[in-house]
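From the shared-data thread, chain only:
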Amino acid sequence: MAAHSETLGVVLAGGLSRRMGGGDKGLSVIEGRTILERLLQRIGPQCAGLVLNANGDPGRFAALGVPVVSDSVPDFAGPLAGVLAGMDWAAEHRPDLVWIATVAGDTPFLPADFVARLHAAREAAGAPLASAASGGRTHPVNGLWRVALREELRAALGRGERKVGRWTADQGGAVAEWTADPDPFFNVNAPEDLDEARRLAANSAQ
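Structure, as tokens:
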């Protein structure tokens, strides 16, 4: 899948991983690669650039070879803060990029057509953003966002907004649906999820 020339890929790994007992769940290994390595290798060819959103010491991600940007909103404000961090980085460092595509940092089976299908959905709907869906559920953290929305998002975060799905709905976001096995948006939230991801990876071409 060819890179979309106006899109920055942003991997969101700024959470606290409470259900995994803390630490960086994106550094968990599946079939010889960390989840973050898998994600970057999957989304990298689809975008014109990549950054990782993570808080704390960025040095722990040095081996990944991508810029690390932390939240500007304090106190671990959730995925929307990571989306804003990606938008702000794009505006400062890559003003040629009109869009960011965000992926949850615990999603090891991201599809190769992720960015292209989100663009197709938002173009068809005339929307300023688009979210992925699978299995009858929308996954708004995995989405496409117009960088020009960043001041609106900053104001919403300042008002205390933390719900990704609510904010995307307020903006009139489009949805792109995937059907695949394993679920391309399966995410690793708990130790049993990691076990399942390893089983799925071992039994598939994923």
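The radius of gyration is 16 Å.
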